[in-house]
Amino acid sequence: MQNNIQENEVILTEEEACARLSEQNIIRLEKLAELKSAGLNPYEITKFPADTKNAEIADNFGEFENKDVCIAGRIMSWRDMGKANFIDVRDASGRMQVYVKTNDIGEEQFAQFKKWDLGDIVGVKGHVFRTKRGEISVHAKEITLLTKSLLPLPEKWHGLRDKEERYRKRYLDLIANPEVKDTFVKRSMILREIRNYLDGQGFLEVETPVLHTVETGAAARPFVTHHNALGIQMFLRIETELYLKKLIVGGFDKVYEVGRIFRNEGMDSTHNPEFTMIEMYWAYVDYFAMMDLIENMYRHLCLVICGSDTVIFKGTEIELGKPWTRMTMREAVEKYTGNKTAVGNELIELFEEHAEPNLIQPTIIYDYPVENSPLAKRKKDDPAFTERFEYFINAWEFGNAFSELNDPLDQRERFTKQLEERRKQEGGSTAALDEDFLAALEYGLPPTGGLGLGLDRLVMLLTDSASIRDVLLFPTMKPDLKGQE
Fold this sequence. Notes:
The protein is α+β, with helices and mostly antiparallel strands. It is built from 15 helices and 21 strands. The chain is elongated and about 90 Å long.
């Protein structure tokens, strides 16, 4: 069944639309050849003295009125009025109307200008004025073609509302939907503010290896690669935890890493095979100190980024500013099921099925069974449980924290059990114990609180984004094989 596409009230089939694009591409290539033959190759231009952003002019018209400016950007629209034309030029800050007239730039230059296309990148020198209709504009004295666009910009019917195409060709999404950029500007602000906050608390940002020589017995599946010079198989990291705890062994008291993590697993609205994790470790404190740290950091981020201590997510007001609810896993299961006796894997299953879906407002769930907490310290008064917590918002887990296990014998035993389970599930598994990490524990890890949080989910929350793909500039996508078969 063919899809019909509408262009200027004309219904086109997909094949006709593609052919139309191909025709425009040919026309633009011919225009480029004409420019080159006239010695006007735009790709030879190496710089342009743009000194003003469009938003500066729009926001401060009184300061710029009648003053000369130099702007640059992409032509997004064109109104042809014969010997006078209006074009919209968009730069990184926004759009600006430009008035181009034959008498001002000369007939020869104007004739060249009329052959340019939407999508071309231009530089404009001129003075700022307000049109009779009241629109702030730049009256061009000179206009220069800086880059020729060989493909037409996507129309509203093509490549903009198709989310797969928008994610696959984010550069076109940003051109056609400039509001999308706001999410990624905010993402950068969030990351910067996390760094500022942790630095202000005395943490040191560090970097640890992405390529690991050992596939651990952890549940997450790694991506596998090969190091040619060493002749060994290597694994892209699934966490930064073990290296960061080695640094605590080595004498650092507070460290964190903003790390790209790779997990060879499924994809959905909250999971991408590569994502950003922020892990932090703090010597001589327990998991309660990490609860206070993360609650205060989220409250701070919300105030700085959103200007409020509440945020609207999927139509629900999330109150990050109020004290977060804190419950043990056992208390949460009892609250939502009435079960008071469940332990171990049964408790975990009851929590995930009945309690977790109710955790809409920020909630810290702590004291997890040892069965699913191989890196957390056991509770002294109840060794079946560990000093571990996760915090939930909108029924999603946003972060995971422990009083870190620093008993090397207990850690070896738990790693070994985890490894055995992995090998039972996967015949021929190459997973192994990380002997270097276990050796580091034997030298002595001080009592330590540790926490890891996913940056992408946090950005989704603070930007009210429904999918992780909306907060990743270039999410992982299946290759587009259309036209290659």
